[in-house]
Amino acid sequence: MLFRPNPASGVPIYLQLIEQVKHAVETGALRPGEQLPGIRPLSEELVINPNTVAKAYRELEHEGIIELRQGAGAFVAAHAGALRQTEKLRGARTVVAAAVKQLRARGVTDQEIRRLYEAALAAIRGKDGSND
Amino acid sequence: MTEPIIIKTVGLKKQYQDVTALDGLNLSVPSGSIYGLLGRNGAGKTTAMKTLMGLVRPTAGTAQVFGLAADQSATSILIRQRTGFVSDERDLYESMTVADLIAFTAAFYPRWRADMAARYVRSFDLPQSRAVKALSRGARTKLALLLALCRGAELLILDEATSGLDPVAAEEVLQALISHVANEGTTVFFSSHQIAEVEQIADHVAIIDRGRAVLEGALDDLREAYRRVELVFEGDAPATQFHSPGVVRVERRGRALSVFASSGAEQIIEEARSLGPVSAETHHVTLKEVFLELISREG
Asked: Are the beta carbons of B219 and A40 separated by less than 8 Å?
């Protein structure tokens, strides 16, 4: 598995690692039960701080994406894929909620918002013909 | 998680006749961290490190390493026994060969790691029978680093760890440092001109300017706090003052306002809303941008 955080992007490296692990799980590059590189080898390979890798792994464990087994290393959790799906929807809900709030603040009615969403979906469907 | 503090300076001052090298420097280096010290030439990095090693006596303030006073000769010896120091001069015994210097240094340290030294001689590709004075700048730096790493020190203080090295040699040195920290749990306090290498390996940073720390903290916290807020207006951007805390600088150019902030980007956008921008965006900033914003340009 290849991880490539960019230290100069301004985004914390541990967050980049978390996203890259999640992405690998989502695409199936990493499957449930598979082992991730250890903290030391990964920090040596990427030439980044071992504390940074440890922080990313702790966070991923907390989110239920990986399991840290004492002495054995880090493994992709059995339900990581499903978790990712619920998380995706939760994230999407936040985006939609924020958009609705903004539109209401500009005086757009709920009825209009619903129509705008429908119109936007239809327009995008028309453009690339995918995603339904 | 709060780690114990390995290096602590409070109000550290050093005055040389009419030059102020340190002007109230406050630093806290947590145990197990890789701590990068950034600053321009003459900002006080070398003086700070030499003060910690007892080579420079401060004019005022305190410096402690392992909780021991750095400016008392009795405790300074204890600090030096537990610390590997690579000075910016890389002062080594010039006439000795590489192998002799390693054997000579090993004799002083009961915790010397001969296995590690042999490994670094190979991975750094050091010519064992060559005299130190005939070594290239890169090989010299690697040898100085080897001597500091292999003595079983709990703390490494490295002044310009990779200066004068080509990119390949610099990466080798960083790799050696990372692998040392990962395997031994050593604390590393290093200075550098290379912002990119500090961003790559450090978890804590300080930016010092004119003998003071203008910023200090965990690198991830800084990355999460610092933002640039870009506002675009229908007509010319209003000449306005921001009152949100965290605003470092506001730049006005045509229809755009750029607000550089050390924290609270959301609050700034909230405040800007009353000005009616047509768009408001926040951007992550790099350590280089933070550095350029915070240090004084003149002189």
From this structure: no
Residue B66 and residue B160 share a domain? yes
Beta pairing, strands B155-158 & B60-65: unpaired
Number of domains comprising chain B: 2
| Residue B152 domain flag | yes
Residue the block writes with tokens 């991975």: B123
pTM, to two decimals: 0.83
CB atoms B223 and A44 under 8 Å: no
| 8 Å CB contact of A11 and B196 | no
Q: B136 and B270 in one domain?
A: no
Query: B50 and B117: one domain?
Result: yes
Confidence of residue B146 (pLDDT cuts 50, 70, 90): very high
Nearest Cα residue to B25 out of B208, B188, B292 = B208
Same domain, B126 and B264: no
Find the helix or strand (DSSP H, E) in which B170 lies: helix B167-184
Sheet holding B83-86, edge to edge: B83-86, B155-158, B187-192, B34-39, B204-209, B212-218
Size of interface A-B (CB pairs under 8 A): 62
pLDDT digits over A16-43, tens only? 999 999 988 888 888 899 999 999 999 9
Q: Which domain holds residue B38?
A: 5-218
Cα of A132 to nearest chain B Cα, Å: 30
In a domain, B299, yes or no: no
Residue B299 has pLDDT above 80, yes or no: no
Let me know whether B71 and B167 are in one domain. Answer: yes
Residue in A closest to B283 by C-alpha: A10
Residue B177 sits in the same domain as residue B231: no
Tokens standing for A21?
Answer: 């692990």
